[in-house]
């Protein structure tokens, strides 16, 4: 399994480097090779995930390593599906490094396969944690698109440029998807918490920061839909919001132990 894990990391890294080189040099053949490497990395990553799930006898999302791996897998999958739909290279430029960086972070976490804690043995397990992985992946792509948007502005692109408008719109749609899934995470988590700990909400650090993240993205959507914000301001908000996502994902486990501390094991 370790061979598959590190092979996936290497392939995601190579895909990211080639994608950046293709963008810089404006070479279509490099884009094609980068996509092939992304697909190869995704295939290897999928094989690793299936193998670990079989070895564990459960869905491999039970601890920080497994969740980070699932997060990276979801980012690669969402990025490629979006590319197939829209044929916008900026999407892959955001998704490839996201998959590489998150899976690299996972590789530094303890990788032992352990039995599920009693609190995790629930029918809500797959919905709650699976939705979180795809929610975070959507937010990561939105943040990456925000970075790409700002970099293109610095290179002299006008906000009226069609490519920039598409980046802005895709980032917004990714936030919509992530926000919907994060809502599912919070509500399913509340129901699960009541069953496991006899409390719908306990202000556990993970719960609190998930709520803070949800509120920030609600503000993002309000600014977009009610005040008609677009372009640069939305790109900046998407990047700031991604920082909150990453803190909720990793920082809380390291700095603010609570009822979800099992996730760092």
What keyword list fits this structure?
265 residues; 8 helices; single chain; mainly alpha; globular
Characterization of this structure:
There is one protein chain. With 265 residues, this protein is mainly alpha-helical. The chain has a domain of 182 residues: Four Helix Bundle (Hemerythrin (Met), subunit A). The longest helix has 36 residues. The mean pLDDT is 90.
DSSP helix fraction? over 70%
Please give the largest β-sheet: none
Ends apart, CA distance between termini: 19 Å
Strand residue content = under 5%
CATH class of the domain at 62-88 and 104-111 and 118-264: Mainly Alpha
Uncertain residue segments = none
| Rounded average pLDDT | 90
In N-to-C order, the SSE pattern is HHHHHHHH
Overall strand count: 0
Q: What is the SS-derived class? A: mainly alpha
CATH architecture of the domain at 62-88 and 104-111 and 118-264: Up-down Bundle
Q: Mind telling me the C-alpha Rg?
A: 19 Å
Please tell me what the overall shape is: globular
Break the fold down into its secondary structure elements and pairings.
Layout: H1 2-25, H2 28-56, H3 64-86, H4 89-107, H5 125-154, H6 162-197, H7 205-225, H8 232-255
Q: Quick recap of the structure?
A:
With 265 residues, this protein is mostly helical. Helices cover 78% and strands 0% of the residues.
């Amino acid at each position: 399994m370790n061979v598959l894990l590190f092979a996936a990391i290497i392939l995601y890294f190579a895909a990211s480097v080639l994608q950046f080189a293709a963008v810089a040099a404006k070479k279509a053949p490099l884009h094609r090779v980068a996509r092939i490497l992304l697909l190869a990395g995704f295939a290897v990553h999928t094989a690793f995930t299936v193998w670990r799930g079989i070895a564990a006898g459960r869905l491999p999302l039970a601890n920080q390593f497994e969740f980070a791996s699932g997060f990276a897998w979801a980012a690669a999958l969402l990025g490629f599906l979006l590319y197939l739909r829209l044929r916008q290279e900026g999407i892959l430029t955001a998704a490839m490094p996201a998959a590489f960086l998150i899976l690299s972070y996972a590789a530094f976490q303890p990788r032992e396969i352990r039995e599920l804690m009693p609190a995790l043995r629930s029918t809500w397990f797959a919905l709650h944690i699976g939705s979180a992985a795809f929610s975070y992946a959507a937010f990561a792509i939105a943040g990456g698109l925000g970075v790409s948007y700002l970099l293109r502005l610095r290179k002299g692109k006008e906000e009226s440029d069609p490519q920039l408008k598409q980046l802005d719109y895709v980032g917004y749609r990714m936030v919509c998807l992530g926000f919907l899934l994060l809502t599912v995470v919070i509500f399913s988590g509340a129901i699960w918490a009541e069953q496991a700990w006899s409390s719908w909400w306990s202000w556990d650090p993970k719960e609190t920061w998930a709520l803070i993240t949800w509120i920030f993205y609600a503000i993002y959507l309000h600014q977009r839909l009610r005040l008609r914000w677009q372009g640069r301001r939305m790109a900046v908000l998407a990047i700031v919001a991604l920082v909150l996502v990453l803190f909720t994902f990793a920082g809380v486990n390291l700095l603010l132990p609570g009822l979800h501390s099992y996730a760092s094991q």
